[in-house]
Design brief:
Helices cover 35% and strands 22% of the residues.
């Protein structure tokens, strides 16, 4: 299966559920959700291999979960 990563606030969970309710998407993608307000980082190895990245923009002060770090480590072929 292809991998969709969501790095977001509490709205990431309902977004993931909504995406998975669409049958064609659910047949093709696995969804992993990382909650940014708990500072849960997406492992770089997962970012490097994901197919879709959906994220909430966060400034540099958020460190490894900032937009800059996510985009620097995401699979260059992923849809962002």
């Amino acid at each position: 299966m292809k991998q969709c990563i969501i790095s977001a606030n509490c709205q990431g969970i309902p977004l993931g559920k909504q995406l998975l309710s669409f049958y064609p998407f659910a047949c093709e993608y696995e969804v992993d959700i990382y909650t940014n307000f708990t500072k849960t980082a997406v492992p770089y190895s997962i970012l490097a291999s994901c197919d879709i990245l959906i994220y909430q923009r966060l400034g540099d002060s958020w460190g490894e979960i900032s937009e800059k770090q996510l985009l620097a480590n995401v699979n260059p072929k992923a849809k962002v």
